[in-house]
Amino acid sequence: MQSSTISVKESLQKYFGFNSFKGEQEAIIRNILSGNHTFVIMPTGGGKSLCYQLPALMSAGTAIVVSPLIALMKNQVDAIRHLSDNDSIAHFMNSSLSKGEISKVRSDVRNGVTKLLYVAPESLTKQENIQFLTSIQISFFAVDEAHCISEWGHDFRPEYRRLRPIMDKITALPIIALTATATPKVQQDIQKNLGMTDATLFQSSFNRENLYYEVRPKRDVQKEIIKFIKKHPGKSGIVYCLSRKKVEELAEVLQVNGLKALPYHAGMDPATRARHQDMFLMENADIIVATIAFGMGIDKPDVRFVIHHDIPKSLESYYQETGRAGRDGGEGNCLAFYSYKDIEKLGKFLQGKHVAEQEVGRQLLLEMVSYAETSICRRKFVLHYFGETYNEEECSKMCDNCRNPREKFDGKDIVALLLAAIQELKEKHKAQYICDFLGGIESADIKTYRHNAHPLFGKGSDHEEATWNAAIRQSLVAGLLTKEVENYGLLKVTPAGKVFLESPSSFELIKEHDYSSLEDDTDIITNQKGGAGASDEQLFSILKELRKKLSAEKNVPPFVIFQDPSLEDMATRYPINEEELQQIAGVGQGKAKRYGRPFTDLILKYVEENDIERPQDLVVKSIVNKSGAKVNIIRNIDRKLPLEDIADSQGKALSELITEIEHIVSSGTKVNLDYYLNEIMDSEAQEEVFDYFMEDAESDSIDEAMEEFDGDYTEEEIRLMRIKFMSEVAN
């Protein structure tokens, strides 16, 4: 393959300004320049792009780079243009270009100015483009994100499977295929489909030492995400969600909680999407909340955390998305929230697809379940999935399972029974079938095969299904079992497993995580109103004393300042500033400003003196603090509509509406009901009830007020007067 006389290392310095290569980059580039098919498997951040960019710049002709996403192409082209004083050095050709722009691209390529031409696979199939490409000098073909070829890959694109015949139509040239994630099965698929089984394989370790892997149960997930981000102030992060709706919702929740977050998904208009991406890259926003539409080719080296609000549909997806953290070798936290209900949702998405595609999808989901529920080193689990052996002692507590190890027990007999059962059943069944068989569950399949009559049926019923799943997963990683991917996950006993069966030895099993009792995502955290008793009785007592003192100074009843449920809430959550105080039951902005400072000062002092660890950020601001119904009530009161009419319009009884108004007022919002009270009570009656609450009442209890007036006023009249009193005096 023709190239310039300048050496590879000199070219690296000339074009990229680097003095040395990373890993196997130099060997890869020399292999390409020698005209050989080349297959590169290199983790995100390993420097894949340079492996084809440098030989393209060094070679005669134009390298054709097949790339799956328009956004990815644009980023790659922009990056190459920054290396040159001529923008024509790199172009992309896809559906986003006008006819004039396509003519310019073709002209630059024909004139030999363009060294890299990025093409979408769909564009490559067009006859006019095939004709154009046959008329120019091409240096080699590069297939980026090559995992898209395989139906076992996490981002399968059918058009990728047609690439080789099209390349053959154009010209016979060396191919370099590149991917960040490929299991052994996917590797075989890529090489077979591209007709490059003779390719030189360059496979870097999948291990990213700087990444910390953690899985948490999906409980109060938005609250947990806000807590996590606030512990990493000012740092860049990506939060992945499965749905566009969830992206929009979560981005808004983060924003109202003072975080610089922006949404990103394919349903947004392109200009907004591009602006949000640029704001993230330029550090005008710290967090991108996105679907998987975001991230491919985003070359931001200092992403410090990647959070999965929803578990991804495959371990490949998870690995690639987490790989966007810590690309500079610095801190990279990878946090995923797991609930089996999410897996069930993803399973439903497979319905309606071709049977084989459904089976593949289910297998990939089960691998994700295994990763989430496993209690062994997460790094070891992931690397085993990609065909790599790893000693968990090297993890250095860089995953939650190594940092907080779970209970271990000798599972020699369990593993021996497991392997025996798999062999007895002729190695023709999947994990779930084996669990059912050992557990003595007469499923329809077991009855069909008549395995419920087998001597080993139910022999493991004294152990839970979770134990058998743990034994299967940990035996796979230990090399005693293997899973036949082509046959959709049939379990086979390996030679090492047969040796174990002949002479069982100690086998340490680790108790798995159990998420079975989890509720699904609780989503938006609303302000919790109403106390259920203070958790810190001593603080509650001190707060009551302070309230009593202030009420004497201000000459108002104590309950006007803060009601008991508010003090109970304070003694549970320890608010130490005005913003936190506003999240307390019955405390709105006005009340926090008027009465709050002495209380937050007292709580701060109490927390410091007693060395109390506060449940900070456990209550987050909700984006639904004022529902449409409440806003409607306030507007209609401002319009002086009769309360009966407002209640009817909302399908409520009058007493229910009064309860709603009480909630509005207790949180600090003023309402003026004089127009309605003046219709139902004369001024003297109003004054009598108002004075009672101001001077005689020991609490704001309606029952005590009813007893005091002994039937002179209805319960609704007293409740409405209490609303007037609290609105005027407390707010």
Write a compact overview of the structure shown.
This protein is α/β, with parallel strands linked by helices and 731 residues long. It has 34 helices and 17 strands. Strand 5 (138-143), helix 8 and strand 6 (175-179) form a beta-alpha-beta unit.
What features would you describe in this structure?
This protein is an alpha/beta fold. It has 5 domains: 8-203, 3-Layer(aba) Sandwich (Rossmann fold), CATH 3.40.50.300; 211-348, Rossmann fold; 412-506, Winged helix-like DNA-binding domain superfamily/Winged helix DNA-binding domain (Arc Repressor Mutant, subunit A); 537-609, Orthogonal Bundle (DNA polymerase, domain 1); 628-730, Arc Repressor Mutant, subunit A, CATH 1.10.10. 48% of the residues lie in helices and 11% in strands. It contains 34 helices and 17 strands. Strands 3-4-2-5-6-1-7 form a 7-stranded parallel beta sheet, sandwiched between helices. Strands 8-13-12-9-11-10 form a 6-stranded parallel beta sheet, with helices on both faces. Strands 14-17 form a two-stranded antiparallel sheet. Helix 13 (315-322) links the parallel strand 12 (303-308) and strand 13. Helix 23 crosses helix 25 (564-573) and helix 32 packs across helix 34 (715-730). The longest helix has 21 residues, at 589-609. The model is unreliable at 518-532 (pLDDT under 50).
